[in-house]
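Re: Re: token formats

Sure, here are both.
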Amino acid sequence: MPFDQPLPREVKVTDSASLFRLEERACDLSLNSRLDPAWVRANAALDGAHYLWPALWNSLAHRPEVPRQLRCELLITLRAGDRVVSWLDVLPADFNPLPRVTSREEGMQVSQLLDRAPSVREWLLREGGGSGQQ
């Protein structure tokens, strides 16, 4: 993938099964930005919609065998209905086939939620739980 490739400017929506696969892949590849897949499985709403918004390209200079990744803001819908924000590094081959948000209204709503939702860390501190970060 060329290094001058522009960042995708689209919000992707994913179901929980796909989110679990993305988190597990990031963990298997030891990518920098990810959550503990067990935490995601325990807390993400099984029927929830989750959103990815690319923020920057990331690469692991010390591991050239790992392809460049999209570092995405991740909006997770939790089982209790709360939403939290985190980061997730996603390979372009995994990001591209995800369905994209097609309405401007939904995209604007996701943007506002990304700005207002607490981070996973803030949510955990408020709820008194352990860390979801690795």
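Second one below.
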Amino acid sequence: MRASAKIFWILGAFFLVVAIAYGFVTYRYEPLGIETVGFPAVLALAGLGFMIAMTLTIASRKHELDASDDLDGEVSANSGVQGSFSPYSWAPLWVAIGAALCFLGVAAGWWIFAFGVIFAIYGVLLWVLEFSSGQHAH
């Protein structure tokens, strides 16, 4: 986890430097000034890199060394349970349909976007409450 955090700190710093250089170059040489799509996109990449790095750094402080942090570790050290997943869940399908309709709605018509939001909310609620058996269940 620490190695991954270092990689994302480096990526965040790299994209920040690239964003500053890109903003300077487009401001200097473009007739309309700073380019309005690329500059914020590269800044967003830097922000995402820093957010992931911060999350991994905080997680590595709270938990013991991961198998990937051991210099003499083997690949088989990461084997075992990786999480609890429902193999026959329909919730990801509803979320994907909702996301697809939202993207289609932005391109084709805003009324389609509303249906996408409904499908996405239904899918997310179904996914979150999938293993819930009620407030007072034992």
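The mean pLDDT is 89. DSSP finds four helices and no strands in the chain.
- S.
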